[in-house]
Amino acid sequence: MEIKIDDLTGYEVIELVREHLHGMTLHSPPESIHALNLEELRRPEITFWSVWDGDVLVGCGALKELDGQHGEIKSMRTASAHQKKGVAKQLLQYIVDEAKRRGYRRLSLETGSMDAFMPARKLYASFEFQYCKPFSDYKEDTNSVFMAKEL
């Protein structure tokens, strides 16, 4: 698999981000959806990566700089046809390594509290992310859980 910085202009990437956003609407009420759209993912404080197996897009993810010592994982998504093949694990390791390279001391994330998000929460826990209070601009929400890892 190849992980590369992406400008979010390719058809496959646009469709995967749309799939990600649509998936959020199936499991979360609108006020609890914190996934970013294409325009938001293009902000300068966000680095977006796509994951490829040859010429096939298999996943994506992003890292948002909250400040010089704190990053947030955003838009982690494995393409439906490639789930349970280690895509998310490899990408998460890449993002953790990048956060360390940048000198971040903390890496945080928000994900859903519903059963549909259990595989994601298990993956983050396997990387030693711990449950925490809301960070940045997030507020307590029964539909969200917050996790963080000290780097």
List the helices and strands and how they pair.
Elements: E1 2-5, H1 11-27, H2 38-41, E2 46-53, E3 56-67, E4 70-78, H3 87-102, E5 106-112, H4 118-126, E6 130-132, E7 144-150
Parallel strand pairs: 4-5
Antiparallel strand pairs: 1-2, 2-3, 3-4, 5-7, 6-7
Description:
This protein is α+β, with helices and mostly antiparallel strands and 151 residues long. Helix content is 30%, strand content 33%. It has a 7-stranded mixed β-sheet, with helices on both faces. The model has no long low-confidence stretch (mean pLDDT 95).
What are the defining features of this structure?
151 residues; alpha+beta; seven-stranded mixed sheet; 4 helices; 30% helix
Percentage of residues in DSSP E strands: 25-35%
Percent helix, as a range, is 25-40%
How many helix segments? Answer: 4
Weakly predicted, low-confidence segments: none
Strand order, sheet with most strands: 1-2-3-4-5-7-6
The general outline is globular
Mean pLDDT equals: 95
The N- and C-terminal alpha carbons lie at a distance of 25 Å
The rounded Rg comes to 14 Å
Main sheet, how many strands, which sense, barrel?
7 strands, mixed
The secondary-structure class comes to alpha+beta
- Written as H for each helix and E for each strand, in order along the chain, the element string is EHHEEEHEHEE
Please tally the β strands and state the result. Answer: 7
